[in-house]
Design goal:
2 copies of one chain form a homodimer.
Chain A: H1 14-23, E1 27-28, H2 29-39, H3 46-58, E2 62-67, E3 75-80, H4 82-110
Antiparallel strand pairs in A: 1-3, 2-3
Chain A binds a DNA duplex (30 and 30 nucleotides) through helix 2 and helix 3.
Chain lengths: ~110, ~110
DNA sequence: ATAACTATATTAAACTTGCATATAGATATG
DNA sequence: CATATCTATATGCAAGTTTAATATAGTTAT
């Protein structure tokens, strides 16, 4: 018997979370990780945050800039682009669709 | 610019869908595919349905039985086990948690 | 006959994930 | 002053997942 459901979905879909956070202002990997963990109460694998940011940059959804820090080493600060905002909108539509499906499943199962 | 969000979550998480359908009665791969598509309006890759059923069987969450069909070739009919029902319950809990996160994201973004 | 539908399953390539590891500056503690 | 902890970014590898293609084969309709 398996211990548990292997993956909780949203935890593996950093993209909309990161795009959302960046839509509220520039940020960088380390800080984004902490925001997701505190604001969304999601476990985060830091590797995936950096990988996701890389991908978004390659796809022109964010810009990249090296900036000094007062608390530690330099940061790579990301800013969302117009393309990134479009992608976020698409994500929200998909999440809405998904929400309906999840609701259908949960409601159906609660009747069991 | 990427065309679209690459994956909508639930479409790739057949497991709770399949477990739910099986909790309502025995079924088989081909029929499950159609049920997910019609009842949940989800696109389904049939390969993944069979693979998911295989995995569930390997983990003793479903039983397997070859049964003849009147409309085509034999079917492999699956039935959910007690372990499968437990797994479904775990899934529902996780989906509830996920739903909250998705709501938080959607609501935050709708303010933009 | 032949196409379309029913039905199951595997292969190969591409992709994703988690964990480990590497690097390195800044700060705190003993 | 040495060492640990925190801040910060990034990649390699093994394992797992997904998609598309392919193989097989019985049944039904035209």
């Amino acid at each position: 018997m398996r211990k548990h459901c292997p993956r909780i979905v949203i935890e593996n879909y950093y993209e909309p979370c990161i795009l959302y956070l960046l839509s509220r202002g520039p940020s960088y990997g380390y800080k984004i990780q902490q925001h997701i963990e505190t604001q969304l109460s999601c476990g985060v694998n830091i590797s995936n945050v950096y990988r996701c940011l890389s991908r978004l940059h390659k796809e022109h959804c964010v810009t990249k800039a090296h900036e000094p820090s007062e608390e530690g080493p330099d940061r790579v600060v990301y800013r969302i682009t117009r393309e990134g905002k479009t992608l976020l909108k698409d994500w929200i539509q998909d999440l809405n669709k998904q929400k309906q499906i999840v609701n259908k499943l949960i409601n159906s199962c609660s009747e069991l």
